[in-house]
Write a structure and sequence with these properties.
Low-confidence stretches: none
Shape: elongated
Order of helices and strands: EEEEHH
Strand order of the largest sheet: 1-2-3-4
Bound molecules: zinc ion
Distance between the termini: 17 Å
Number of strands: 4
């Protein structure tokens, strides 16, 4: 999926990006979709992992990821 980052900031070692996403489906009249927020975290020497957050980025989410950055990677390996 192609994505355009419209907003980005870092908070407690987690990078947050607001992206407009193209689904690449033929005849899609709603492209680009979003914008949606994503949280990107890099733990140790591993590859950065991206988690879809949603349309709104709540202060609860910021707090949760800043305190539990490993939860971002857990989500990715289960999906
Ligand atoms: Zn689309």
């Amino acid at each position: 999926m192609a994505a355009l980052v419209t907003e980005e900031f870092e908070y407690h070692n987690v990078n947050y990006q607001r992206r407009l996403v193209k689904c690449n489906k033929d005849l899609c009249k709603k492209c680009p979709h979003g914008p949606y927020w994503y949280a990107i975290v890099k733990i140790g020497s591993g590859k950065p992992v991206t988690r879809y957050v949603g349309k709104n980025l709540k202060s609860d989410t910021l707090k949760f990821y800043s305190e539990n950055p490993e939860k971002v990677t857990t989500y990715e390996t289960q999906s």
